[in-house]
Amino acid sequence: MSVSLVGGFSGIVFDAYGTLFDVAAIETACIAVTEDPARLAALWRAKQLEYSFLRTAIDRYADWGQITSDALDYAATFLHIDLAPRERRELLHAWDSLPAFPDVQPALERLQAAGVRMAILSNGSLRMLERLVRTNGLHTYFVDILSSEHVQTFKPDAALYALAPDRFHSRVYELLFVSSNGFDVAGSKAFGYTVCRVDRLRQPMDALGLEPDITISNLAELADLLLSANDD
User: Fold this and answer.
1) pLDDT greater than 90 at residue 229
2) Does 50 lie in the same domain as 165?
């Protein structure tokens, strides 16, 4: 099979939450239930990630939907927010309708036109990811959606990162891994990927001794970089 190499890579693997889709939109959903939506959204997201790390460490897998639900219950209890069943359902549904960042679709369009094979590799459940991708009209750009469900563990477990090289039939360093999350940048780099960090918020890297190979502020810069490399 002939594989189109763009920028020297046989494929690009994208993280979903915070990289393609804007998790900050959860704060908007929280406005309906609290006078401090930023605090609820931040604690909810922090607990969501913490539970994924803890469940991976102690080998007690639950899918991303369950983790998201459990994290909401903790955050609401901690902040003394009494959620009605309808309010709780609507908050959880917000994760199925996160907007893509404005730069995402144009960049994916350019990369696909250049023959790039692209996939998503995410902690998310397959149902949640498929709904997000279709809601944002991005389903035609990806050859696959690789979910934590396939291996029943979460990032930064190596078993999850191993899905993409298997799917692309490529060596790991031949794939470009793109993420905005520091733990994901470190985890994918430790696994052996060439790593691109999307630093949308201009934040420092976590002090783990693992640095990205490329740093950009949005996906338009990534498309520019890879497509110009092909022209050289």
Assistant:
1) no
2) no
Straight-line distance from the first to the last Cα atom of the chain, in angstroms, rounded to the nearest whole number? 25
Q: Is residue 76 part of a domain?
A: yes
Let me know if residue 188 belongs to a domain. Answer: yes
Structure tokens at 10: 């046989």
Residue 179 is part of which domain span?
11-22+100-231
Q: What is the pLDDT of residues 41-95, one digit of tens each?
A: 999 999 999 999 999 999 999 999 999 999 999 999 999 999 999 999 999 999 9
pTM reported for the whole predicted model: 0.93
Sheet holding 175-179, edge to edge: 144-147, 118-122, 11-14, 175-179, 194-198, 214-216
What pLDDT does 6 receive?
54
- Tell me the catalytic residues: 15
Residue range 129-151, pLDDT digits in tens: 999 999 999 999 999 999 999 99
CATH number at residue 50: 1.10.150.240
Q: How far is CA 115 from CA 12, 26, 108, 112, 137, in A?
A: 11, 34, 11, 5, 19
How far apart, in Å, are the Cα atoms of 123 and each of 22, 135, 161?
Answer: 15, 18, 10
Distance CA 181, CA 199 (A): 9
State how far the Cα of 97 lies from the Cα of 83, in Å rounded to an integer: 20
Same domain, 157 and 72: no
The pLDDT value given to residue 8: 81
Q: Can you tell me whether residue 119 is helix, strand or coil?
A: strand
Q: What is the mean pLDDT of residues 27-39?
A: 97
Alpha-helical (H) ranges within 94-170 are 104-113, 126-135, 158-161, 163-168
